[in-house]
């Protein structure tokens, strides 16, 4: 086997890529991602949690702080929502030049779960949120150092977002109790936001009268061009379309191999800003042509799309892109930022078409 | 964040690392690996299989070839076995110099499932295996090119192995129907052998009167020093011990951070050659000291172990190693081979111990 393109990927990045799972792109064929194929980004270790001992504290700027058991939460009104999550760092390893090093995602840090839990808003309302509340902090049981700072993983959303009726505290995915890697026994789901907000192994919800200044909020997950910049915080998912790569793969390069003829290309598209309005496909750098759109699985999840491609013999590159009802669209090229967030440049898929397409592979 | 050690990992290798999941090492705390944390190595794509249409053919050198539905298989006697699988390429990316490039595993390509299915031997006996049978080929529905050859993934075992009473055709893992990534609707489980033998999306079992010459048997999965060598085929898992890295991690380097004092190090060890007889731990290159052994989960699965370490302030390196009842032991250093198979050199874990261990991290 030939050596591939040198990339400067470090052993540390490889260590993160081994731990953190992407969704193999053929799993886009499932409207709800099967358990074990949903992407995972776990900053520290998966904590060992005894659900019987576990408690959720709800405190800070509330009149009636409280502590809840899992059984108490599960006795509250339940709701199941299909929600698409994407890691804010998706596409990071495709940026040139490389920025600061972190989990080296290519295109696949996404997944859709059917999340079951109880809405957060009634709990906050019952607790009596102070009128000066600004942020609601979600703290997990996962602990470690990042940027030299020892920390429990914690992220906040503005109080207005926390009070949305679709924000859930969930204990199940796809009809099963949360497995360890998805936050057993409880995580928060804030539809529309990138994954860093969907705090796993949730143990505390804290209402603040000032902006949250935790490391993951103030230092990380910000769009900046240089270390000294404060930058804009990452929040909602930008639009993105991905396709199931057509044909079959070459093992090492993942180049797609296909026989000539009509090929139905299928994929999914999502945005945290609004419903997907358009998906387009470009072949070999040519015009963007419209794909057929399916239904959104829910207002918070991706929608399917398909495109008929007449595959002619030879080497081709397919791209796809989406735009949403809020007027956001995927850019032609990545928008570079130091920490590699929100890179929603179009997916590129290399395809070799022939009667025996494997003969077109470089030897 | 600082750039890490340059490693020459290529973008193609990163693409494989994104698709193929390792088991985060803290999951060693589970005797049975939770669904979604078991390692996955998928050569081509996960195929889309309609279980209602799917059939298993049993043919070749048998008197009564047959075709079976999933319902017919599930009506046969059932057995559930905890079995540990490891990828034959586990440890590949730690070899120096790098050999031929493939999935760049570090240490974590392992997992233990509780597999439920029906024994293969009675099916073969009923079919009437010819007396000149040599190999039994398992063919999957996963298809693609590797080494320039278009192929359906297929591996064989000698007829004597296929007739072992513990070889199962399985449709469930951990009490649940096989998910797509583990071979839905059926895979074979040959306890003791590396993962390449545990063929997923099984569609054909073929008895041969000559040695199987498929690409994955004759070209790949062989221990060789150079391209032109034929090499020895990879078969049973060599002994290996792994520990749950103690303390908490630094996000990027995964260096472990720990306060001084007594630290109980826990892990698991396995071998495909026989029961684990000994696990030992070495601190900072010092003497190998015995760990306490637990029970094997089954004759085909790992056993737990633990070791009490008095953690003194400073930087340390922990290693662990196992040996089995067949007299096999982990070597001090990797045994290099071109394709990076069976590297069972001891795991090394870097630990910083201090009252505020994060202050010991290089800035």
CATH superfamily (homologous) name of the largest domain in chain A: Oxidoreductase, molybdopterin-binding domain
Assembly status: homodimer
Largest interface: A-B, 72 and 72 residues
CA gyration radius of chain A, whole angstroms = 21 Å
Helix amount of chain A, in percent?
A: under 10%
How many helical stretches of chain A? Answer: 5
Global morphology of chain A: globular
Instruction: Note the run of SSEs of chain A as H and E.
Output: EHEEHEEHEEHEEEEHEEEEEEEEEEEE
Structure overview:
Chain A is mostly beta strands and about 375 residues long. In chain A, about 10% of the residues lie in helices and about 35% in strands. Chain A is built from five helices and 23 strands. In chain A, the strands form five sheets. A six-stranded mixed β-sheet of chain A has the order 15-16-23-22-18-19, with no helix packed on it. Chain A starts with 5 loop residues before the first strand and ends in a 10-residue tail after the last strand. Chains A and B meet through strand 1, helix 1, strand 6 and strand 15 of A and strand 1, helix 1, strand 6 and strand 15 of B.
Topology:
2 copies of one chain form a homodimer.
Chain A: E1 6-10, H1 11-19, E2 56-60, E3 66-68, H2 70-74, E4 79-86, E5 110-119, H3 120-127, E6 135-146, E7 149-158, H4 159-162, E8 168-173, E9 176-177, E10 187-189, E11 202-208, H5 215-218, E12 222-223, E13 232-233, E14 240-243, E15 248-249, E16 256-258, E17 261-270, E18 276-283, E19 289-290, E20 292-296, E21 303-311, E22 314-324, E23 347-353
Parallel strand pairs in A: 2-11, 16-23
Antiparallel strand pairs in A: 2-3, 4-5, 5-8, 6-7, 6-11, 8-9, 8-10, 12-13, 14-17, 15-16, 17-21, 18-19, 18-22, 20-21, 22-23
